Amino acid sequence: MGQRYSELTPDLTRFIWEQNMFFVASAPAEGHVNVSPKGLDTLRVLGPKTVVWLNVTGSGNETAAHVLENGRMTLMFCAFTGRPMILRLYGKARVIHPREEDWSAWLSHFGDLPGARQIFILDIELVQTSCGMAVPLFDFKGQRQELIGWADKKGPDGIAEYWEKKNQVSLDGKPTGIFEGGEL
User: Fold this and answer.
1) What is the CATH number of domain 3-133+142-166?
2) Tell me: the pLDDT tens digits for 94-112?
3) Other beta carbons within 10 Å of 19
4) Radius of gyration (Cα) for the chain, nearest Å?
5) What is the sign, positive or negative, of the torsion defined by CA atoms of 94, 115, 63, 75?
6) CA angle at residue 58 from 25 to 148, to 5 degrees?
7) Residue 54 and residue 112: Cα distance in Å, rounded?
8) Residue range 60-86: average pLDDT?
9) Of 85, 176, 79, 72, which Cα lies nearest the Cα of 124?
10) Cβ-contact 31, 174 below 8 angstroms
11) Other CB atoms closer than 10 Å to residue 41's CB: what's the count?
């Protein structure tokens, strides 16, 4: 059954690498809680207390607004094949934008995905496992490529235009920090 850890163990890190998707949860002090599924090759474990993930452009930008407000973030991994387990990483996150000086250094962990919007660095405060015995079994067929194609077709200027229209504020009207002083 469930256990708590202060950091990732080698077995838990292996479990993360075996998963084809993860979920990100964040919330403002007041307003809507956000839970978002993530795929592609966008997550790295940098150590037992540090995980980074690359956020590509999407219809909303809730996580960025929430992290700017309070830093709280939870990542969840579920075993959809093999031995059942759910793994949650609780912690404080910070966000890196493409305009920032250290963007290239952080991006080097991933490669340059079209539409890359932010990198989140999660400092892990608590690791928790739970049984996952009610999580259904699924067969993985592959990662979807539509978002990459969409971002490629838009190009950098089209992506910036999209960010301006769709990614500057959260559902609750909170700023996401996608632009600084109106500039990318």
Assistant:
1) 2.30.110.10
2) 999 999 999 999 999 998 8
3) 18
4) 17
5) negative
6) 120
7) 10
8) 97
9) 72
10) yes
11) 11
